[in-house]
């Protein structure tokens, strides 16, 4: 019986994209929290989006669309988010926002 190779400790698959280090996720989430320190409802909405994805209530395309809308005007956060999504969902816009482009 063939079993898939195990991932290194701390590595997890992204939103259907390549594996990433959990520390990268923590650092990114902390940067979102800091960016929206004066708007805790935006940070809470971001966490809700991630929770909905984890619970399979929404798919990758919905995550990309919701995060892109939520972080509009915050190109650094959008660029950082693009690391966690499959290349099929990347499309450069005027502020480097990831945009759902997969069929």
TrEMBL record:
GO terms for biological process: negative regulation of transcription by RNA polymerase II. GO terms for molecular function: transcription corepressor activity. GO terms for cellular component: chromatin; histone deacetylase complex. It comes from the Eukaryota. Keywords: Nucleus, Repressor. It is found in: Nucleus. Its main location: nucleus. Pfam families: PAH. This is Histone deacetylase interacting domain-containing protein. It comes from Ganoderma sinense ZZ0214-1. The lineage of its organism: Eukaryota, Fungi, Dikarya, Basidiomycota, Agaricomycotina.
